[in-house]
Amino acid sequence: MPDCESVACLPESPLDRMAAELNASDESSPARPVISIRNLSFAFNSEANRALRNVSLDIFPGEFVVIAGPSGCGKSTLSMAMAGHIPHVVEGSASGSVFLAGTDTRQLDLSDIAAKVSLCQQDPEAQFCMLTVDDEVSFGPENLALPVEEVARRRDASLAAVDCLHLKGREIFELSGGEQQRVAIASMLAMEPEVLILDEPTSSLGPDAALEVWSAIEKLRSLRAMTIIVIEHKLNRLLSLADRLVIMNNGEVVLDGSPATVHSQYLQMLRQHRPLTLLQQPVKPPEAASRETIRVRDLHFFYGEKQILHGISLRAVAGEFIGIVGSNGSGKTTFLSCLTGLNRPSSGEVEVEGIDVTRAKVSAVARKAGFVFQSPNHQLFESTVADEVAFACKNFGIDGDAAARRLMDEYGITRYSQFHPLKLSHGEKRRLNLCSVLPHDPVILLLDEPFIGQDAANTARILDDLLRLKSAGKTIVMVSHDMEAVFDYCDRVVLFDEGRILVDEAPAQAIGAIAALGKRAFLPREQRA
Amino acid sequence: MIISYAKGDSLLHGLNPLAKLAAVFAACTLLFLMSSVLASLAALATVIAIAFLTGTQRVLRVMRTKFAGFLGLWIILANAIFTSGGKVLLDIPLHFFHITITDLGLATGIIMAVRFLAIFLVSALFVSSTEPAALVYSLMRRGLPYRYGFMLVVMLRFTPVFERERKAISNAQKMRGLEIDKGGVKKLYRSLRFTLVPLIVSALSKVDSLVMSMEGRAFGYQPVRTFTFEDRYELRDKALICVSLATIVLVLVGKAISWQWSHGPMF
Fold this sequence. Notes:
By secondary structure, chain A is an alpha/beta fold. Chain A has helices at residues 14-24, 75-82, 85-88, 110-114, 124-127, 133-143, 148-161, 177-189, 207-223, 236-239, 259-273, 332-340, 362-368, 385-396, 401-410, 426-436, 456-471, 483-489, 507-516, 525-528; strands at residues 35-43, 52-59, 64-68, 93-100, 103-104, 117-120, 195-199, 227-231, 244-249, 252-257, 292-303, 306-317, 321-326, 347-352, 355-356, 369-372, 444-448, 475-479, 492-497, 500-505. Chain B has a two-stranded antiparallel sheet. Chain B contains nine helices and two strands, in the order ααααββααααα. In chain B, strand 1 and strand 2 (98-102) form a beta hairpin.
């Protein structure tokens, strides 16, 4: 029988005392904020580069607040301050205060704050510390030394709240992206916090998995009188749920109010200050040429004993831009790897620019096909931006200096040429990734989720870059969860499902075909209803 | 062949990890102190029989690998060539020295090779039937401070993550023309520079998230914590631990008496 090593009573913390005082106060008085931020400024390294600038914000009990803004505007830093990780875990230079139920978080232990505020971070995989779903969700209550029965009650209640009771007993690594994110939320709910902060909970999920997570959040909203703060780029789904929308820019709160009003002001602001292609009519691409660059016939791929791809056939020509969509785990990334020989097809034909990929060396295919992988940091190898751009040419033994200089100019990163690539922002790293696969002039470009973690401005920049490459005759095959980008910019939309191609059509026809299959999550937002 | 934990319902799977650990120590002690070819072969046969009887014979496949074959042969040859004494079986005169193989050298080589194989199989039986996290939990339940125990749990948790990331980095290198597999010292340098650095960067970024996740859930808040992990500790586990400890004591005492018999008092 499981037993409790120690059932200790939690000592009364300063927060408990403050909360008790708060509860005992006159009920007729106006609600006091559960989190109150006053003139908060924070810098990670240098004072000159502040992540937060004089932020003041009140969050009231039971509110659903959405915080949005461009990449690097300080949203995640603000969430760390609200959860007490700044100043207790994250080092840097801070001024101003964050009050939790009226007490300065600097005067509270992190464990006291943890019992009231939970932060669910962007990447669920990085925050899991246990090997099974049960252990992960029980981890917090176990740390509080609660009785075994109470730990079990909280575990089951938290999993039920996000519709994940069926995942009990499963290993963490077996879970899909959507399941991982919901288990991460459950593991925070098990702390029974008053405030739950979700930092971009769907940023790396496919549209169907994102729907699962949003449904879980909607259910939470209706079931529990909990304060929920969501940090998110994509606002449409959240606008109907939120009580307030807060917009940040350059470390400051620039807009704060009702979602509808603030959203329209935000869009106006974006239009005025950033002429985004995404907000304009997309440029109609030129007609694709007829030279065949990719030919795949009846491709099957097994990973161990599991079949991942089932008879894929696809053809692409020069100047064609193909968007591949589908659930996490439907075989999209495996397919891109098969196109390059990184995964050797189990059977079938794969030809890239006339090269038989089933027999050729990866380096031979790599001369013809550039591959931008999902994680920007996994593909940065050199110590300066200039060397990073020239890296492939050096390995292939070709003189690419002039091409590298021209591309750095074209992609606006010449001013960073002597910077370490890891010092660039997320958006700049993505541009560097794209720029780095071009100097040896590949005919085909493969991109795996290029928009993850990118705001609308960065997404628009990357799309502009891709359209320029398309007009230069490159074949582009892009895997993406961004349905708007895929349907507005691609010549063809290919829907993968469990290792098979269900739809391969021009965007206008693909909308009907996908809707007929009932897979509306893979349609642009306005077509989903 | 990689030996790793495989789910199962064999007798070995059902034993408490600490009881199995005690049995492994006892078996290793016994094997190290054996000095006859027949006894070593009997011990190896016993380990193989245990694998069959407990339904974990999967691990015996390791005996068929090239690695086991080459290593066993190398141990026999090295001992046969370099152990002096005993009856000369073969003498090969070379320009500067003779290669002399004696019966003692050959017997020592066979004992060492069988010992190596038996210890390897015993360890493989333990690894293949013991869930790593269960072992750590058992250790924590028996007194290992939980802060140290969770270092091991986190390490186990992130091993497959980093393996996947290493593969992603390697794929990105290949697609930009870098072939690390070529060359000796150069390969090592390129591996360190182009694989280790991105991997460490990734690990460090995960450390931040993990610390926030663990501390944000009150890790370290109490000197002791609740464990919901069910640590089975039955009569058979207690019996196995007693037998293992008794074996170690008996073998050590027996060895000491035999040493005293042939060399005189120890103290």
